[in-house]
Amino acid sequence: MVVERFSQNVINSGIFRLFIASGFFATVIFFVVNADFFTPIEMIFGIIGVTIILKGISNIMLSMIISFFSLDNKKNELNFKYNEEKIDAMLSELNIQDVLASNKKTKSTN
Asked: Where are the transmembrane segments (predicted)?
């Protein structure tokens, strides 16, 4: 659940789309500047090929980010919250017992 949410946030951030789009436009500019050396069909295949390669690289980067994502911090945070709730519950129970004990003392002295 945590990894799914993290990967959705990374995908929705648009960093990979920006990477692919900048590579696409850089390739287009390269072929336009060097139009004397390439035929139009070579330009089209070059642009398509580079775009596909960049998409593959972005997918590899995403999978590596997800595989290197550490759940230890999240686990420690959840354990801390769980322990904090248990401690709060025990303290409130102790307070209730103290109030009951003090009520018994006041009733017995009256």
From this structure: 15-33, 45-71
The pTM score is: 0.56
Does the CA dihedral 70-76-77-79 come out positive or negative?
A: positive
| Contact in structure between 47 and 24 (CB atoms under 8 Å) | yes
8 A C-beta contact, residue 63 and residue 6: no
Task: Calculate ∠ Cα 18-22-26, nearest 5°.
Answer: 175
The encoded tokens of residue 52 equal 């596909």
In the chain (110 residues long), the average pLDDT of successive 10-residue segments reads: 72 85 92 91 93 92 80 74 84 87 78
Q: What is the pLDDT of residues 45-68, one digit of tens each?
A: 999 999 999 999 998 988 888 777
Q: For 38, which DSSP code?
A: S
Helical H segments across 1-110, by residue range: 2-13, 15-33, 40-68, 72-109
